[in-house]
# Entry
Amino acid sequence: MLTSDYLSGSYFEVALAGPGAVIVGRFTAVSGLNMEVEYEVYNEGGLNYPRFFLKENRPQVLVLEQGVVTTVDSVSLLMAMCASGMSIPLGGTVILKDSFGTPQRTWTIVGAYLQKYIGPDLNSNQPALAVSRIELIYNGCY
# Structure
């Protein structure tokens, strides 16, 4: 698809790559661009303020919806690798682009793992996008 196909609105350009696997595509909806950190509060005697120590990052779910993956059959290759027991970490960017293809905001994703893939409902009488939903678990965006 060309950028001119998206003149009516903005879209997300996603590029995630790992050892032997790549997901590159354009999606109309992306959610889960979060980061959540849990802290342990420690109070020392005689101090008027508590100290915070990083306890752990909480995993988030990155959801890519209604899009077209432009790399050749990369999602099925990634699913086959996961089904054979391989844990493939993906890293890359999610870029929000306006209707003219100009980048507006960029998020960096590190250590994302495929959690779920839902294909489109295929109907020869209606146009359908190639991907309905991809879910990746990761530790937050930067």
Remarks:
- The two ends are 28 Å apart (CA to CA).
- The chain has one helix and eight strands.
- Confidence is low (pLDDT under 50) at residues 1-7.
- Helices lie at 74-83.
